[in-house]
Amino acid sequence: MKPLELKKGYAPNINGKPSDHIFQSDKPNRLGLAPSRIAHIKPRLHIAEGDHVQIGSLIFTDKRDSRIKFLSPGAGRIQRILFGKRRVIESVEIELDPRESSCDFPVLSRNDIDRMPRREVIDTLLNGGMWPFLRALPFRDIASPDAPAPQIIVTLGNRHPFCADPAVYLNNRADWLALGLSALQRLTDGAVHVVADPHNAGLQATAGNMITHTLAGPYPADDPAVFVHHTRIDAHANQSWYIDGQDVLAIAELLATGAYPIQRAVAVGGARAGCRQHAFTRMGAPLASIAATPAAQPDTRWIVGGIFTGQAAPADGYLGFYDTALNLLPIDREKEFMAFARGGHSKLSHSKTFLSRFNRQPLTADCNTHGEVRACVNCAFCSQICPVDLLPQFIYKDILADDIDEALALGLLDCAECGLCTFVCPSKIDIGAVLQKAKFVYRLENQA
Amino acid sequence: MEKRHNLIVRNIRALFDRLRPHFDAGGKWAAYYPVFDAFETVFFLPADATGAGPHVRDSLDLKRFMSLVLVALAPVLLFGIYNCGYQTRLANGLGMNFVAICLSGLKIVLPLIAVSYAVGFFWEFLFAIVRKHNVSEGLLVSGLLFPLTLPPTLPLWQAAIGISFGIVIGKEVFGGTGRNFLNPALTARAFIFFAYPAQLSGNVWTADAVSGATPLAAACATALHGNAVDCLQHAGYSFSNLFFGWYPGSIGATSAFLCLLGAAFLIYVGVASYRTILGGIAGVLVTGYLLNALAAVSGSALPMLKLNPVYHLVMGGFAFGIAYMATDPVSSPGMPASRWIYGFAIGMLTVLIRVFNPAYVEGVMLAILFMNLFAPLLDQLEIKRHIRKRIPNV
Questions:
Q1: In chain B, what are the domain boundaries?
Q2: Which of A91, A250, B66, B260 has a CA-to-CA distance to A397 between 20 and 30 Å?
Q3: What is the ipTM of this complex?
Q4: CA distance B333 to chain A (A)
Q5: Interchain contact, B55 vs A310, CB within 8 Å
């Protein structure tokens, strides 16, 4: 086990951290899928309103590769398919049966997996709806089933505030982690790295023997791009695959039980959350069923995922395919008087320009910009915080000047998409979005 | 007290809310929205929610970033006002009571600052309205830095022309704050320097018809005495006088001690780069000692060659320039090593100009402007090195 350390990044001291108390949510009466929240894919529906589905029935595939399947997390009737602008599929809602039936998948032991040809392992994961859990750097799209992975990175971490603690979801399930890892090993000729936070004592106790690397440091130390940045010796690692620890458990559950896995451990946090804790709930559960807070609370943002890169969701939305967190943050509507001239004892800032740097109390994070957009003044705060040592201010200017070659040479594709450059920018420029869009466009142009 | 404060805030809020419809799209003054926005955002932080991207943002914005420079300038400004009054009354043989000194100082300094801000903001607003963007906070700093570098006796119309040149030619023609490659306040100061040399020589007119040589002028004119330090002493400039700034000179730039305090504050809050400042000090000392060695080897009679380099740190505008001007992030390089080189070169050039160029007694202004031009090149070199170190991902 090699100790690694992220020196940059940011660990904000904010309130709303979920406790490791686990709350078992009641069975909801409906579930939903949110295809539009899954990046890159072009969903094609295989069901219509009124159809009856089982747990594990095919709901939609990716038009770009129809082998990539998304299956139903519940059994019941398709109640409603909600389309957004330009016929984006926002949600597929399933009214659950009181007694749910499920599709059968093959039960496979570790020995079976070790003896199967690689192609069959891949098909098992594709047909079992597990494949989308595997994603590939640098574009973070679903991995291609046709090319083997250079290496696979399993991330066990909750340093993105606030995501599910691996110690919580791994409790009593370390065997499944081992089974899942052996399946992953069949997908690569390289190594399967299990990367964890060395300071998470609970995790070390449950899965310590399976951890191959520890990466200390603040957010986004759990990100696979950060791991690659710290371990890369050649360009081979740039296309590494990665998967979240909880999704490895899902793979293991499918193999061990022959049933489509439907349980998720979700962290519920943020200043506006009624009960900050972990919830054991169903994949696709209505957000309101785990938030433990009135949905009508005004000026509250519902974020599925962490506070930096999570997605905003409506209060009547659903837990998505990858989601392991729900954070509720306030939006401040009060225009503060002479804010720039105040001490700022309780203002969240990475800089040292507020008195809050002397304040040890957790601060309240809100969803406000705290200033107007200005031109870049070359303060270099973004490059001082970037976890993969990019120079976001120069890459940003290269992109605006259409010099994509220089942007690539500066490591555009290494971007961890953590959002910290945008977070710190005093000119309130969304640098991260400019970089991400450039990555996206570069990929489109290369495919054409 | 709290109640009265709330009442005031509510009334100001109500005033802006009443005016807003006229400036919003479709209103009769919609074209002047940037002016409205500039005033409103001084009083009230906008409460905009984040859209795309990270939901949470840092509380630091450019207004606070720039305001912190003003905080760091406050001691220099207050001392400048007092020292101005003191030197004027001294030159005119007037009474020396504290209030009178302050009033005399204010009478000289306030009009210069008022002219600088008024004319500067006129141009900022004009360009913001024409270009339809919001007014940037850069002028908060430039508008105060510029008068602090001026001799107290400069006519106000010259100050107005100077700041106009600095803002328009030094900044706005390149696209405004963030796109200027020269420091606007120094550009303004350089314009005055070359356009009206009589008012900006090494001799400061402390009052009507009374002139006093600045320390640099005194040190330069030491051919007779042979030793620059002796000559400085002779003209009444001891080291501690120079360090604390009790001598006639530019309004804000005389006290190296207060500039040091300001620099320490800016470094502490992370607004100024310590690399630039320490690099500059190192540049002065290394160059100064090398010149001392040169003097010893060559037996040159040039007195400035033999001057103890520590004097270079406290004389003239070096301390002010390296603390507040060279650290302007827009016109200085953005890479760590480049900032060291940039600072070092400013220190070196300052000393070289002071020692070898008889036409200009002060070198720091030209040194910083010169290195402003090289900042992009220094960055480019370090970026090339940075690229070579990375494992490619294309």
A1: 62-212, 228-247+255-380
A2: B66
A3: 0.91
A4: 8
A5: yes
